[in-house]
Write a structure and sequence with these properties.
The protein is globular. The protein has a 3-stranded antiparallel β-sheet. The model has no long low-confidence stretch (mean pLDDT 81). It contains 2 helices and 3 strands, in the order αβββα.
Length: 83
């Protein structure tokens, strides 16, 4: 079970690195939540056919715009490394 927890985001990012570069119109979705006082931000994208792809979920230091942007840039950097 622990292996799947580690492998799941890697597989999702690999899929993104193969599918997303060919897409022209994407919609970005972001959501934030708190659990036990810890803030998390999750990102997804959808294509023209309404297929959803998970960018991931990460812990936020704060819900500020700068922290949210930093987390989003981390996701893009992770995907870029897969290319």
């Amino acid at each position: 079970m622990l292996n799947m927890t580690v492998e799941r985001p890697i597989l999702a990012q690999k899929q993104l690195s193969e599918v997303i570069p060919d897409q022209e119109n994407l919609t970005l979705y972001a959501d934030e939540t708190s659990k036990f006082g810890i803030k998390y931000s999750g990102y997804h994208v959808s294509d023209q056919e309404r297929n959803m792809y998970v960018l991931g979920m990460r812990q936020l230091e704060t819900k500020s715009a700068q922290n949210t942007l930093n987390v989003f840039q981390e996701f893009l950097s992770d995907i870029d490394m897969m290319l």
